[in-house]
Amino acid sequence: TQGEALEVYIADNGPGWPVALLPSLLKPFTTSKAVGLGIGLSISVSLMAQMKGDLRLASTLTRNACVVLQFSVTDVDDVE
């Protein structure tokens, strides 16, 4: 039916997302690391959009980063 989705949660047990960067972490060239370009999450957002899905970040304010991938299942044929 219309609006159905599959959500996949990917979490770690690290320190979580830097709170100051949360509003911009999904934008290109945003990083808290000394090395790297800061484009991984923005590329992932683009790929999910191409698949009619969504990517969002979730975490507590103190620890544990979590990425939520939401896939649309409205265009998927029934699989036996």
TrEMBL record:
Domain Histidine kinase: 1-75
Top-rank lineage group of the source organism: Bacteria
EC class of the enzyme, as a word: transferase
Pfam family of the protein (one): HATPase_c
EC number: 2.7.13.3
UniProt keyword annotations, A-Z: Kinase, Phosphoprotein, Transferase
GO molecular function, one term: protein histidine kinase activity
Reaction(s) this enzyme catalyzes, per UniProt: ATP + protein L-histidine = ADP + protein N-phospho-L-histidine
UniProt signal peptide: none
Record protein name field: histidine kinase
